[in-house]
User: Fold these one by one.
Assistant:
Number 1:
Amino acid sequence: MSGDLYGDPYGTAYLYTKSYQIQNPARPQPRGASASDAYGFTSNASLILSKVLSNTQDFIKLANHQSRFFGEINSLMGTRSTDNTTIDNEEGQAFDSKHINCSQNGIHERLAEIVQKHKTTQFQKPYQSHNLEAFELLREKIRLQTHSSLILDSCCGTAMSTLILAERHPDSLVVGVDQSAARLSKVCDADNQVRTLPDNCLLLRANCEDLWRLCVDHDIHFDSHYILYPNPWPKSVHVKRRWHGHSVMPYLPKIAERTILRSNWLLYLQEFSAAWQQLTGQASEPQQLNITTPLTLFERKYAGSGQALYELSVSLREL
Ligand SMILES: C[S@@+](CC[C@H](N)C(=O)[O-])C[C@H]1O[C@@H](n2cnc3c(N)ncnc32)[C@H](O)[C@@H]1O
């Protein structure tokens, strides 16, 4: 049996086994942060781009589905946001990849206050049904599959890192999660080739906000948790959209023994580290990486354009 990709927000199964065809691309995406939001990609920009592409086969293919449309456009064009941050190209094709541009001089002045508030208040947003379904599939896979350890790859995008981790840890169960069906539909390996999932790999379309909470509430505990190149939200006003400023942050130290983040934006990792320390009492510093074998498409792109890349590794402490 090959590995599976699940996560069905609308009751129509997205079941991926040997191939990775989207079953129903015309369905809208659930509400939630998308990469295009994170990088300030506007609907006006999409209209302009739709005109540019209107006579092409690409547009016909893309017009079915707005979020897929955004994703494809981002792949086709290195569109720039208002922050002068190049929109990320999922396929990691070579083009100018600018450094993150942020007006903050250091850790966000309100971060400690925000983390404190989230630490002392209950995150009460109701679970979305497709995330509950994805969680049930995760539980079932864990129950059925023998594994020596559990690895979570959150915001896995096109799952290159999930596949690499599954290959590196054949006795572990590696779970990749992303909210974007468009990205998951392009599951590819380090050579950018679409390929079959190994048995020890599960891909879920789900929002991490819900999945993380469900894992904690149901005592599903991972050995390692990777969050590689999360959407950075560089505008100061968007601090609460960064994972460490998000109301789900207090759940993160409870998910895994070790949490590993990577980013091309050092400040993001420094802020995450500060929030982690506030929650757990444990300090850790981001380290600069020397990339020889990229783990993700974004990593390959950033490293290829000469950007400094950093990793933060933090551990669980009983709370
Ligand atoms: C910048 S991409 C990085 C993808 C991949 N880790 C890589 O390095 O190539 C960020 C990814 O996070 C996903 N994402 C953002 N917010 C999410 C959420 N709340 N739940 C699940 N996935 C999310 C996006 O769909 C996107 O694929």
Number 2:
Amino acid sequence: MILQIEYLTKQYSHKDGLINAIDDINLIINRGDFVIITGPSGSGKSTLLLALFGLIKPTSGQIIFNNERIDNASDNIKAKIRKKHTGFIMQNFALIPYLTTVQNVMIPLSLQGVNKTEQFNRASEVLEFVGLKHRITHLPRELSIGEQQRVAIARALVHNPSVILADEPTGNLDPALSLEILDFLRKINREKGITVIMVTHSPTASSEYGNLKVHLKDGKLVENKELISVHP
Ligand SMILES: Nc1ncnc2c1ncn2[C@@H]1O[C@H](COP(=O)(O)OP(=O)(O)O)[C@@H](O)[C@H]1O
Ligand SMILES: [Mg+2]
């Protein structure tokens, strides 16, 4: 087990009243799982993903990561855990526009204090893995959308995280590119044994990918289907 969530609830207070963005969620994720989180817009998917790694503080409940309770840890400790163990892929890629491909990918290593030469070498290696070795000095705007998303994947991978969190990573992509990115995530999951937790709207993704499917509705977990484990 890599991640356990117990009775997790997040309420937002809004001028119109309290919103239960996620409501009493229990979930166990094992190392090497490929988790697919689906649900209608506003059902709490992003909130769950952000809460999992301490980017928002849950109102109640517990999050246990690697046998350690992290929901009540200090911001400093949570940031350390995130930097070391997690990679994020967002729908809008969140690449830094004035940094080149390789510089964008070096960021997580720079945050860990790795020296510049090693940052460059490791970033180049991961860019080769995602098939972008020939684009390392391009700026994000000089890349196609699919290439930009692969840079985001490389950046999420470069520090060998144990978990990759992806919030609708194919949301902006056409069907062919979406499949390419999903296949990439599967490759990372299978070849590197990295746990992938992905929020998606894509019907293909939710039917063809992943061994644990979680469906949210109004902040509640309404379906939790365990399929054959890829990593028993
Ligand atoms: N910062 C916030 N303040 C108030 N309400 C929020 C905030 N963030 C999200 N919500 C509300 O919480 C619910 C869940 O949001 P979200 O997790 O973003 O849903 P999803 O990712 O499934 O579309 C929605 O009703 C949304 O409007
Ligand atoms: Mg969302």
Number 3:
Amino acid sequence: MNTPATSAAAASPAVKIRIDGLSKTYGTFTALEPTTLDVQRGEFLTLLGPSGSGKTTLLQMVSGLTPATSGRLAVDGEDWTHRPVHDRNMGLVFQHYALFPHMTVEENVAFPLRMRKQPAEQIKRAVAETLEKVQLDRFAHRFPRELSGGQQQRVALARCFVFRPEIILMDEPLGALDKALRETMQLEIRRLHREFGTTLIYVTHDQEEALVMSDRICVMNHAKVEQLGTPTQIYSDPETIFAATFIGHSNLLEGTLAGTDAAGNTLIKTPAGTFAGRMGARDAGAEKHALIVRPERVSLGAATGPGMNELRATLRDVVYIGSDNRLMLTLPDGSEVTLRQDPGAETDMAIGQEIAVHWPIAAGRVVS
Ligand SMILES: Nc1ncnc2c1ncn2[C@@H]1O[C@H](COP(=O)(O)OP(=O)(O)OP(=O)(O)O)[C@@H](O)[C@H]1O
Ligand SMILES: [Mg+2]
């Protein structure tokens, strides 16, 4: 009993879920390569990646609905690899929220508590409280068919949060809603997550949604994790070409490694010239390298001092996108560079004109 030194829970109380080499294969097809990551207690972790990248597969293995081919799962330091679904007490919300059509909103939300045989008075109180939190108290006696899509999804959320699960898994829960409603619900889920202190794993293929909602994002591609980090880390320090292009807009100057400069920056030789950047590639021996620079780090004009990269390109288009102007430039080899400019800024540049742009060396990252 008294062996805290060997207990994983005691050794790392911050870790709620430990995913340790979980993998899934179907015959010869690999749906998920062995994956290892820790989800912190109370964390909002998002699995983000394109269709077929293995997000649902990973989530389902955590839920217990899909058995893993290899690896282990631990919760609070306890081995849950083979624990049956009904003993996991996790809240699950999916894209198709599957409310019970013959039950009212109130009955739907009460369902998980009835299953857990809670006393009637307690159920009544918990349901009323939760419905109020998702602003559905006025709809308690309606049936799902009498609700809008957004309201139905709120019922699904209430039904999940009502029994206060320590872990909630959500798989594209807002996928069926329009953009405006999705944005409202994103904030709502975030608020509920904070309020209840739940550990939450959320699946989406929408990068904006992931940036808005998450404490950390796990970027997935081709059945494996590309990068795991905070939204800021992923956005400003992408580690792979995939992560850089999947999240936000990136300028990508492809080329070959050409050593380092005196300051230790990595040099990359591209058709538009040789540039310096911070080495970020995990694999220096990779065939394909690129310098990544976010559009907001690129400025008009020639370099103003040392520590800058500069290039010249042809202005192809200026697009007004509300919050700023987007300037699109074409390089001699046909590749493109985009930069952002304050919409109020004076522009006496003509389309087709050659212009110089520059960016700090520190703003560029060489990835593969
Ligand atoms: N039961 C199965 N049998 C065979 N292959 C499967 C099975 N379930 C999933 N796969 C395959 O595993 C891969 C990963 O699927 P998964 O559902 O995890 O993707 P996803 O990232 O959730 O994609 P989406 O965004 O489209 O939901 C896919 O190529 C899928 O076709
Ligand atoms: Mg999926």
